[in-house]
Amino acid sequence: MLLRNSAWTWMFLFLVISPAILNPCTSQVDHRWAARKRQMREKVRKMFYHAYDNYLAHAFPHDELKPLTKSFTDSLSELGNLKLEHLPQDYKGSALTLVESLSSLVILGNNTEFERAVLWLSENLTFNVDARINLFECNIRVLGGLVSAHILATDSTNRLVNSSYRNELLFLAEDLGKRFLPAFNTPTGLPYAWINLKYGVMVNETTETSTSGCGSLILEMGALSRLTGDPIYEYAALRSLRKLWSMRSSLNLFGTTLDVATGEWLEHSSGIGAGVDSFYEYLFKAHILFGKEEFWRMFHSAYLAVQKYFRHGPWYHEADMRTGKATYWQLTSLQAFWPGLQVLVGDIAAANSSHREFFHVWERFGVLPERYLLDHQMLHPTEKYYPLRPEFAESTFYLYQATKDSWYLDVGESIVNSLNLHTKVEGGYASVRDVTTMQLEDHQHSFFLAETCKYLYLLFDDSFLVNRNFIFTTEGHPLPVLSDWHERLPETYIPTNWTFAQGEKKARRASAMSLQVCPARALNTWGQGDQQAESACHIPDARIDHRCLTDEECGVDSTTCRRRSCSMAGYCGLWFTSSHPCERK
């Protein structure tokens, strides 16, 4: 299966996130699981509505529910710090959880509630409020939610019962997008992390932001440009992304925080977790959504750098972007998105390896702690919480779609049971303050409805994806893969030239990653024995006996993605390996 231009997009997404798998052996539903999947689907449905109904009853139209006290918080902006009587007179509430729930309602098949929510937002939602908001969070949650819901409301299946929709969500999204633009007015083009929706960038606003904050805007703002015909939103996000890319180190690594005024890095240590995670995710998904080869080249270089400098077996530590040397040996719950991204890349073996380690930690504590110290094999002393994050469920969904291995259904069932056992309360679902005691915290984040419940539901019922191609944003909002949104690629990438690289007399040796080809044995289908999946970065040695005269005759190791070298004895191998994390002090 080839991963090139719009054709590879259609084929690969059809494989990864569609129930109609190309391999006939994997397209058959395991009948022993059919009834169990229906049962689990209904459990997840009840979870969603327990959280959603309590939000409507106790928090709507404010941002998020406080399930223990059955009250609300306006968490998206600084309004959340004000008491009810001190809120601006024109404030009606941003209804964040309602916006975040729109696509989930469609996926659960509740078009009536979807239409009711769209109608309320169309008549009541306004962004002309004196509120300082986080650009990144507002982009992925609100702008992404509105754009996605607009597309769902206008698709060919006519999801709105009364057909009364007149693009109101798109008008709201465009209004919000315009309010984002002053944040990009910096010497570097990198946006401020915070902006006031009514007055723009405030005096003495902080110039510090994260890599994700200025590198994870392209999907939502790019989609807004495609829908409105105004390129300014995509241009602003793309300019920021290109500037960020120019700031990478010679190792193709990035830091975690930077200054938008000077373009200088403030924190040089980073990994694949908080502050950086969605940056890597959006490089690849932007390539899928918009077809730009530029995004692929960025992601390819960044992915190989991550595999080379961050990976240690199934785990990913942090490292200094300047030297590649390890800095922090820790697991963070946000890293759990990475196996899902690797599924989209086609690196199933690496994805499965990391996912299983995350599951072991989940089983040990009952949920996934925010931070776990790998070098000490202990919880972080202060970050022992679990805020109902979706990343582990997300990767479980992707891996099941790619392999149809029923083991991932077992994992999904374990997640559902743990959430109901430890976090369900009368007023909704509460975050866990301490995973060692399961003490709860009074907060039900909007992403619990936007992502956690959504990915668990799709794991057990993927009918929404039949005959459709979507990519999901980092907040779980589906965006369709449309050929009209793709740029015309160079002629060398049309199907007639797919075998060109192999047809040359002196073809350059390449990996599945560099050719954008799925590994030949990527589908490790349940029930087919111990067949191993080949890593996407693997480049075999030039000779099958691994003999060599120079390093050029050695390939790239399939497990570590590190380049092999030729020994003095004339054999290819990993002759210079890194030490165990516990030995690095």
TrEMBL record:
Task: State the Pfam families in the record.
Answer: Glyco_hydro_47
Superkingdom: Eukaryota
Which sites are catalytic?
E137 (proton donor), D277, E370 (proton donor), E391
**InterPro entries annotated for this entry?**
EDEM1/2/3, Glyco_hydro_47
| Cofactor annotation | Ca(2+)
Q: Does the keyword Calcium apply?
A: yes
Say yes or no: keyword Metal-binding present: yes
> What transmembrane ranges does the database entry give?
none
Q: Which residues bind Ca(2+)?
A: T474
Q: Name one GO molecular function term.
A: calcium ion binding
Q: Which positions carry the signal peptide feature in this UniProt record? A: 1-27
Q: Name one GO biological process term.
A: endoplasmic reticulum mannose trimming
Which UniProt keywords are given for this protein, alphabetically ordered? Calcium, Metal-binding, Signal
List cellular component terms (GO): endoplasmic reticulum quality control compartment; membrane
- PANTHER family to which the protein is assigned, alphabetical: ER DEGRADATION-ENHANCING ALPHA-MANNOSIDASE-LIKE PROTEIN 1 (PTHR45679:SF5), ER DEGRADATION-ENHANCING ALPHA-MANNOSIDASE-LIKE PROTEIN 2 (PTHR45679)
What is the designated name of this protein? Alpha-1,2-Mannosidase
